[in-house]
Amino acid sequence: MTRYDPAANEPKWQAAWDAAGLFAAKADPGRPKYYVLEMFPYPSGRIHMGHVRNYTMGDVIARFHAAKGFSVLHPMGWDAFGLPAENAAAERGVHPAAWTYQNIADMRAQMKLLGLSLDWSREFATCDPEYYGQQQALFLDMLAAGLVTRKAAVVNWDPVDMTVLANEQVIDGKGWRSGAPVERRELTQWFFKISDWSEELLSALDGLEDWPEKVRLMQANWIGKSRGLQFAFETVGAPQGFDRLEVYTTRPDTLLGASFAAISPDHPLAKALEGDPKVAAFVADARRGGTSAEEIETAEKIGYDTGIRVKHPLDPTWELPVWIANFILMDYGTGAIFGCPAHDQRDFDFATKYRLPIPPVFVAEGAAEAVLAEAFVPMKSERVRFVRGFAGAGVQTGDEAVSAAIAHAEAQGYGKGVTKFRLRDWGLSRQRFWGAPIPVLHCPACGVVPERKENLPVRLPDDVTFDRPGNPLDWHPTWKHVACPACGAAAKRETDTMDTFVDSSWYFARFTAPHAGTPTDMGAADYWMTVDQYIGGVEHAILHLLYSRFFARAMVKTGHLPAKAAEPFAALFTQGMVTHEIYTSFEELALAPSGPTTYDGKGGVTVRPGTGNYRQRYHFPEDVEQTENGVVLRSTGEKLIVIPPAKMSKSKKNVVDPQAIVAQFGADTARWFMLSDSPPERDVEWTASGAEATAKHLSRVWRLADEAAKSEGPATPADGALAREVAKATRDVTAAITGFAFNKGIAALYALTNAVSRSDAGPQAKRTAFRAMAQLMAPFVPHLAEEVWAMCGGKGLVAAAPWPEVDPALLVEDVVTLPIQINGKRRSEVTVPKDMAAAEVERLVLADETVQKFLAGQPVKKLIVVPGRIVNVVA
RNA sequence: GCCCAGAUGGCGGAAUGGUAGACGCGCUGGUUUCAGGUACCAGUGCCGCAAGGCGUGGAGGUUCGAGUCCUCUUCUGGGCACCA
């Protein structure tokens, strides 16, 4: 018996596709276009199973739309700037570019094994001078259009990587790459003014109907619109220029519960007081740690009483102390608050610690006013009784009370309603080498001067070393010393480079004209944009997608994209992770007392307390073996602890290498299995048994097709039953692909295989069925599909064949089997012609022996006949 | 604390309010094979010899009929948050 040989067939068909130029995207005004894009990879050097899953999904979508007659754009590139290249450069003494381009070459070779329908002619890396040069041009246009600004900001400073970190790059108060504790520093930085677009970016989310609801919600929360009251306290005893203290509150209904005012350590007033050494010492203390709310949350609340007082707006005789407190963020609102400890837990904690009064504004309905043990924050449904009412009070708490309080403040003239957003401007400056240089100069005479466009790209130098910390651009002997483009005087280049999120915020637009002499070509962009289907990990739900949405708008404004592309991704799909079991063992260290290891059932492994020193080891799946005894290490037979599947990670060694899988089973097996076992949005567990089963199935399909291809038989007309199975599968696979339910599409293909296998139709009818199956399989397992197509007499390449249409007549059944329920329980069934009248069905049902038996003489109260579905007898 | 998503056989998962468990894995029996593997056939929610009964985290409800809709609840996963 011959077996299917992927190793021989897959390269053959890949070469055939290449020779036919099938995947080169061509702008064809006569055809509808379809732009499918997967989030491009960082060139780490190896592809992983997550890539395989991501790109296979995109490939199914791309191949399907090509077969449906669309002009498809399905490009691939490299998100190639970033810290790992610099780390590698520092460790190995290679230039980041050399390391990056070698990785790209390696990964491209691995990816090509997968048989993806990618247009490689459009490939670029963001570290190509051609790409980042256009990015610099884009930056200059945005600068001219007022979309970029330079301002001082408190930033997270990573003292090891010597760079600014975004809040989200700070994990547990430490840099996400270096692990070093983060400090807060004030630097002058370049910013994209994304916060000007808060309202637009928020409201436009409503139109993104083909985005996951979850992602839209996460973006909405991130933008964080709130309605509140802004007002100014009159100060008493404050330094010159601080007669008033502006505060913002979303809870103006609790204004009568004020007990203190507090300002951020970064507030101008705090700075004005830093002449006092005690204040300076406190502020230094409060600034320890990162700027993220999460970081600040875990820090203990500390405060310093400035001695300044403010007058309550509703009662000038009522004075509140002004504290500097570490939990107030300068970036949100005005950097100053009034504290209402009775109805805000963190204010309560603060007031308790510093023995400040805690006056309640309201209590739960029916409750007496008592000393509070914690802040009283009523639930939405809870009714309250006001104990310190004012005009506008007396209604429910919540939005109504807030609106009433704002109206009251506006009527009395002490404040006004203000809408604030949480979203902050996007700081793009990075003090790193391996990024796109920010194309501006600092001239002693002219100040900040944009580089001239004809001088772009501002290239990174080749002669750099990484043997000392900081930014190599900054201490390069010559790079930054240039003449001012405006006056010709000696000037210095900006040595900051751009955040790598900038690179990935417009690459999708560049793919439409990857070698244009301007950032985009409007003709190409007009044809291809927007991206019809974007696919990637949910980890990019906020930043990358929000930045891209901002950039697309900025590019419309600067004339680099047509207005219709302002929302760059029409549909988004976020795929689940690839997981694998983890195999671990404990190595007992010398002199340690012995004790058993245990597994807690939740993914954690613990060594029994008090048993001494162990070193935990992880083992690669390829090094372990399943035995009757459980999972053991192949080399030693040592029994291993198996931890339930988790995301593949190098540190846990629960990884499988796609290249090895392709070598063992072929690309089609990897592709099929990645899509077959779980819905695409959920995690999928990679298992060796599942991969083997997939390979067996694909081999079976090939063998059945091979048999059909080789059998001689009468030229029977197409077998009706088999044709019906093909029609059903066509309907189901089509629906599964358009509905992003690839697992169901694969189930339909299994069902069709079984149907063909069991069918007694002649070989000719079977060959017809197999050609149809090849077409349906082609998006999932394109190589095997070509093989089956060719064996069974398909003309040309199946990859170039149109998608099969369903003949609706074939899906119509002549007779239907109706289940019969008696009082809602299934008791019998009746097979009737499809169109039988309900009255006739009723007669048949009542005559049914089983029905009579279960009725046992009871009268029938009601008889429900749902045509074509079910019959329910109510007795 | 708030928001979101889930909970279905031994496992992954199917199921426009209409036969719960498609399809796959695993398992059982059989055929082929010297054997292992492969391949093929049959079976496989639970209890029960059977008739039948019970079954979609739990408790109620709506309905002729609920995995699906409503209320409450438990648990799991994810997101957000000293956001004023």
Can you give a write-up of this model?
- This protein has 875 residues and is α+β, with helices and mostly antiparallel strands.
- It is 34% helix and 22% strand.
- The strands form 11 sheets. Strands 8, 9, 10, 11, 12, 13 and 16 form a 7-stranded mixed β-sheet that branches.
- Strand 21 (481-483) and strand 22 form a beta hairpin.
- Helix 19 packs across helix 20 (688-710) and helix 20 (688-710) runs antiparallel to helix 23 (763-777).
- The longest helix has 23 residues, at 688-710.
- The radius of gyration is 34 Å and the shape is globular.
SSE inventory with pairings:
Elements: H1 6-20, E1 33-38, H2 49-67, E2 71-73, H3 83-92, H4 96-112, H5 129-144, E3 148-158, E4 163-165, E5 170-171, E6 174-175, E7 183-192, H6 198-203, H7 213-223, E8 225-236, E9 244-249, E10 260-263, H8 268-272, H9 277-286, H10 293-298, E11 303-312, E12 315-325, E13 336-339, H11 345-353, E14 362-364, E15 384-386, H12 399-412, E16 415-421, E17 426-427, E18 429-430, E19 440-443, E20 447-450, H13 472-475, E21 481-483, E22 490-493, E23 497-498, H14 500-503, H15 507-510, H16 522-528, E24 533-537, H17 543-557, E25 572-575, E26 578-588, E27 597-599, E28 605-607, E29 614-619, E30 624-627, E31 630-633, E32 641-647, H18 658-665, H19 667-676, E33 684-685, H20 688-710, H21 720-738, H22 742-758, H23 763-777, H24 782-791, H25 808-811, E34 815-822, E35 825-833, H26 838-847, H27 849-855, E36 862-866, E37 870-874
Parallel strand pairs: 1-2, 1-24, 10-12, 24-25, 26-33, 34-37
Antiparallel strand pairs: 3-4, 3-7, 5-6, 7-17, 8-9, 8-11, 8-16, 10-13, 11-12, 14-15, 18-23, 19-20, 19-22, 21-22, 26-29, 26-32, 27-28, 30-31, 34-35, 36-37
Helix pairs in contact: 1-24, 2-19, 3-4, 18-19, 19-20, 20-23, 20-24, 21-22, 21-23, 22-23, 23-24
The structure holds one RNA strand of 84 nucleotides.
